[in-house]
Specification:
The protein is an alpha/beta fold and 280 residues long. The chain has nine helices and twelve strands. The protein starts with a strand and ends with a strand.
């Protein structure tokens, strides 16, 4: 495997969950979704009292990026790290000119969301305004959407999660794009909503939450968080995908590709959210 991204997540699950070692030596590209997916595999292994060895990428560029995203700080909780690089990962120099909007950050309690929002807001002008040409209204919408996705973990997953955000240059679009990944290995959409609704599948559960504003809570006003995220992403011509259990629902703009509804994927607990926002 040469890439760890949303597109390779199912292959990653099939390859790594059953293996004693996770071999990343040939990986030449990894994005926040790939990193969070790997950490959530580690979280799942820890819950089962299993500790695997990760063979780190040979690429210095990838190692530097992992260090810049604080991946190693968290990965050591779950994995034994084996590196063939000439320098240990923590010794690799971080780039001062970074496009990282938010390093991999745990979400365990509401206070974490306040810290996350504050850190992103501090960096928003440098990245969202300069590279995506977002105005203040768009940046505020971005902050609200990020907060809602993170809050979903606190309120619904019954577990902790992670978030990471990075700016990329998409040469095929000739535009800058920001990727937001948020994940947990909690109860997932179907279990969360099953107390109020009869659901036939994971896909139906995601649809209820994202498209119809359903919530596990009966209180009026609940369940609009993901709907607000959907409206923001659609307004700015972005891409949104939510994977839970064995299904994924995606909102796909004209500049991207993929299937809107997918079922019978490799089953994995919790929820995995991926948002791509392009330059205006």
């Amino acid at each position: 495997m040469t890439q760890l991204t949303e597109d390779t997540f199912d292959q990653t699950l099939q390859t790594f969950i059953r293996s004693e070692q996770i071999d990343l030596s040939g990986v030449s590209f990894i994005d926040p979704y790939g990193m969070l997916g790997l950490l959530e595999i580690g979280e799942l292994c820890m819950l089962e009292d299993v500790r695997k060895t990760v063979i780190l990428p040979r690429s210095d560029e990838v190692l530097r990026y992992l260090a810049r995203m604080d991946f190693f700080t968290i990965a050591r909780r779950y994995f034994s790290l084996d590196s063939s690089a000439p320098e240990p990962p923590e010794k690799l120099q971080r780039s001062a000119d970074s496009d990282v909007l938010l390093e991999i950050t745990p979400i365990e309690r509401s206070n974490d969301i306040h810290l996350i929002v504050g850190k992103v807001r501090d960096r928003a002008q440098a990245i969202l305004a300069t590279h995506l040409r977002y105005d203040d209204r768009a940046i505020n919408g971005f902050i609200v959407a990020l907060s809602e996705v993170c809050q979903n973990i606190i309120e619904h997953s019954e577990n902790k999660g992670f978030v990471g955000i990075q700016k990329y240059r998409f040469s095929s679009l000739n535009k800058n794009v920001v990727k937001i990944a948020v994940m947990d290995v909690g109860v997932g959409f179907r279990t969360s909503l099953s107390g109020r609704f009869k659901l036939k599948s994971d896909l139906e559960a995601i649809e209820k939450a994202l498209l119809h504003g359903a919530s596990r809570y009966e209180d009026e006003g609940r369940g609009h968080g993901l709907a607000a995220v959907r409206r923001f992403v659609t307004q700015w011509n972005g891409k949104l995908s939510i994977r839970s259990g064995s299904a994924r629902l995606s909102l796909i703009p004209s500049w991207s590709r993929g299937r809107e509804r997918e079922q019978y994927l490799t089953r994995f607990p919790g929820a995995q959210v991926n948002i791509l926002l392009p330059e205006v």
